[in-house]
Amino acid sequence: MEQGLGSDSNHHGPIDKSRVLDVKPLRCLVPVFPNSSQGMSSISTPQPSPFVCVPPSGPFPSGVQPFYPFLSPNDSQNGAQQNQPANFGFGGSIPAPVPLNSFRTPTSHANGVTGRPKRVPKTRAFGSGSAAGDDDVYSDSQNQSDQYTSADMADTTNSGKQRGRPKRGRSGGPGEDFDVELLVNGFLTLFKLKEFDDFRRTNGDKDTVGTILLVFDMLRRRLTQLEESKGVTAGIARRPDLKTCNLLMTKGVRTNNTKRFGHVPGIEVGDIFFFRMELCLVGLHAPSMAGIDYMSVKVTMDEEPLAVSIVSSGGYDDDGNDSDVIIYSGQGGVQRRDGQMFDQKLERGNLALEKSLHRANDVRVVRGIKDIVGNGKIYVYDGVYKIQESWAEKNKSGCNVFKYKLVRVPGQAEAFSIWKSIQQWKDGTATRPGVIIPDLTSGVESLPVALVNDVDGEKGPAHFTYVSALRYSQPFSNNNKPFSGCHCLGGCQPGDTNCLCSHRNDGVLSYSSVGLLYTSKNLVHECGPTCSCPPNCRNRLSQSGVKIRLEVFKTKNRGWGLRSWDPIRAGGFICEFAGDVVKVTDGDFVNANDDDYIFDATRYYEPLELVRDSNKSKKAPFPLVVSGKNNGNVARFMNHSCSPNVYWLPVLRESNNDVFMHIAFFAIRHVPPMQELTYDYGIVMPENGGDGGKKKCLCGSDKCRGYYY
DNA sequence: GGTTGCTCATTAGC
DNA sequence: CGCTAATGAGCAAC
């Protein structure tokens, strides 16, 4: 791996001659098997099923399922059957402020359930309309007394399961005290991964890959939140990514687990990842650490190792001009403890790359890119490459290092190259083609939002005024108890038991330090005007405006749409829905049907459906309707999809007696740059004029309902 | 804000 | 089948 050399010598594209002390070409062979598919016919491993390149929005050929990323309607049945929401620690029946030690798994109880306090009648927080019913989502968590332990959280689906906390690794610190096992089992049941069979374990598809990645990241975020909320840093695992992956692996929840050459079913060129473990789980690149993945194949009589994939870990701004070429360094050569260097040996991955040069087989390439926000890395699947030449050179320490030149197989979808283009648009070294207005917000947002049309001659959408926030003519509701806010002068911190806002979110913060929604709650209490914390408090995420570089663009067949130049992580905040509040309580639906830019929270919405009782599921989730027609922000351009990559969440901000609800949009899964952002518009209930105003849905998903409102 | 140190999980290969 | 060596990311503390 190039990084193992402690040198960035290969990040300068064409070889930096000044650094190369002794370059001697080894060979540059014509491939032995010009037609790689024939050449590989003797490989002992079964060939992968043919790769089908499917755009995210379809259309989907038969056999290719789009990944419906959140929850299927049937899932809500689970919760309904139990007569209790399956909330897994974040659902509808929000635990009230939980003492930190409540996360401890009871050891003295035979069934693992601590004395569950009896439910007390909930009080309605907002006296705002019959639609609220008895739903938990309308309950002020401060008034709730259901103090579930984490065991309770999942026991609706795992009543008979083993209660003993598995002792894992060097556990024993307080960090292991909540029952991870139950948490995982809850997720697996919810996403129907309990009956995961060997076929799906071996052969992925879009749906399977998507579900596994979704579960991975939801679980990872949940574990991060739980560990962080304890406010203890010593003695606990600080790598929730590793822990999550290991949990899933142990349960056999993985796919494409047999190595193969070429594309991996269910993964598209351009897909992005944020952890090496994600690559591992979906079969894109098996080793958890090593940069070269290889397998032994039978060639005529004997076997030889061939490379199947590599992960390069360069920065994308110094990779040279040609984004279709990689100069990759071999692995090894460095003594880990003291960092001492030795010559690399032609073995393992290095040998496999060398052999792959001869055999000319496809090698998958995952580009590691430094994440601008945070210290992490983003992994972009850049499709398959072929190794064109190899050589050895000496590094600074005078040790031999193998170098491999990989060239991208032509005809694949744009992936890494788009990142470089975007970087150039941002730093001004290139102009985004088709730009009509560089910033349609006229400076209202802190980042410009370009208006782009590169498909036809339309010059822009109808006129509207750009506003960055929701405009209320009256508060969403009144709270009987004045809320004076929290006193976190330096911003709300996890594990601070004195933070009033944390208490209102069940004792934990809703957002991570990098602005990710920790869990799929159905309501977030953000800090309000009367809180003492600064504007950059992490509990004010949706108030801080758009932080990603968006553009409004003309779609091929769905009018204007929204997409991002920046990659968006699962759970990442995108924007709120700004506009004029049309309705906050029951009453006649105001001019909604002739407004293409309506946001209607009263609609049936499947992710929320999960945490609802089936009898109540048809009720309007939240009595809020917003029009973005005359005044609005980027959110008004987000199109509907039945397989969305974005969903919304109501966010409450309180000011003395007044409560204001805002609508915040978050990414469901990782969204690569330039992929259209869509959410499920939901279904209009008959009492709100459903069946009227149906529009033909063009989302192209095979889960498409055929229409939307 | 760069650097350093620590630890982790997976798998090839014995 | 069980064990071990090889591999580098991610995070936190400096």
UniProtKB/TrEMBL annotation:
Residues 262-408 form the YDG domain. One of its GO terms (cellular component) is nucleus. It comes from the Eukaryota. Residues 693-709 form the Post-SET domain. Gene3D superfamilies: SET domain, SRA-YDG. It is found in: Chromosome; Nucleus. Its main location: nucleus. The keyword Transferase applies. InterPro entries: H3-K9-MeTrfase_plant, H3K9_HMTase_SUVAR3-9, Post-SET_dom, Pre-SET_dom, PUA-like_sf, SET_dom, SET_dom_sf, SRA-YDG_sf. It holds the Pfam family SAD_SRA. Keywords: Chromatin regulator, Chromosome, Methyltransferase, Nucleus, S-adenosyl-L-methionine, Transferase. This is Histone-lysine N-methyltransferase. It comes from Erythranthe guttata.
